[in-house]
Amino acid sequence: MAGFVRPAHPEGDSRPRDGCGVFAVFGHVDASAHTALGLHALQHRGQESAGIVSYDNGHFNTHRSLGLVGDIFSSPNVMDRLTGNAAVGHVRYSTTGGTVLRNVQPLFAEFSFGGLAIAHNGNFTNGYSLRRELVKRGSIFQSTTDTEVLIHLMATSSYHAVEDRMIDALRQIEGAYSIVAMTNDTVFGVRDPLGVRPLVIGVLDDSAVLASETCALDIIGAEFVRDVRPGELVVIDAEGLHSVSPFPAARHRFCVFEYIYFARPDSVVEGAGVYEIRKRIGAELAREAPVAADVVVPVPDSGTPAAMGYASEAQIAFDLGITRNHYIGRTFIEPTDQIRHLGVRLKHNANRASIAGRRIVLVDDSIVRGTTSTKIVEMMREAGAAEVHMRIASPPIADSCYYGVDTPEKEKLLASRLNVEEIATAIGVDSLAYLSIDGLYRATAGANRNDEAPQFCDACLSGDYPIRLIDQEDGDIPTQLSLLMEQV
Fold it and tell me: Which CATH number describes the domain made up of 276-451?
């Protein structure tokens, strides 16, 4: 879903952001309506843009726009045009590339075999290297997203069948990805060989559904069937679903941050309920980093399940000491330094009755830049907290992600520059502790990381990158050129 220049991570935004969500339906008269609902459920995976492509009796119908799903697909005029019994959809948060209309997915292209719509969650780590070679051979790109590389690789493939072209293209790509694609008679779904990014299969009546998370199946009443396996290509057509395994077997390295933060709490990810995993993470954190306190307060919303687990294990009262405003858009204009400094109060406000005079444990999922944490700690002090202790439901994020998650450059990550004691001083807490990486593994899979080769991708926590960063190693991320392209 990405492009070739990492955009500036919002300075006032101290959260990692997942890149995208994908959804597809085959064989249902209300395919587009169900796709729009599925994208609603996946809105947490991307809030910059959304799109749907449907197929109806020889015609592909497309609607893509910047903005939120509810705004883009609320008009009956829009939905009435998206006719057909098959559709693919996408929500986007750019991890690289520009936030412009030509980068909004699904992308669509005409081939000799007909049309192809494609949507992608993840990053191709050799995307620009491939793009550069394709341009030399005459390809003309219309976007700055690496998703388009797959389209051109399919277009230049010597194979005839669509499935074979896709396999040929995917074998040239390295990276972390979940992809859905649609032709005039088939829907495809595929995960990268290590299974870093999620993709699930569901069934609704007699139609097949693909989605980034099970919560998107729930919203349309579809039944969860199974996860798409790492390295598996599923092909769905009038004959049903068949599976292809075009890659050599590889050790599974699912993104551990799906459990920590990205996935919606009501989703089931790789066979485990996210909500329960987050409570287990909190309990593990309480065992590793206890502290004398009066109340456990979550940083809403993502810190709430871990805070519940912490409070239960520590036998400390749990209270919603911070209220979050859910109606703040990401495009709020902050025209002055003074207003910008107050920006955190647009989203969070202290419940003084729960805070004043009490020793509090703040539980959050992560610290990235530290800007949000600093402001929330200040808010607790102003509300009269006697002590403020912070507990983080993940190990320190000290390395950037190149696999489809928006994180700042390494030098802008607080944990890459400071140790735990220094971070505690920087954000103004009485004490700070992170969950250990072994504790994270025990909470998510019941084993220490060092018991065997790691079963997750934890590169942002460990610096252990399981997929080669070819473009990064070769210095192949064009800066000035892509910055110019983003402005078009």
Answer: 3.40.50.2020
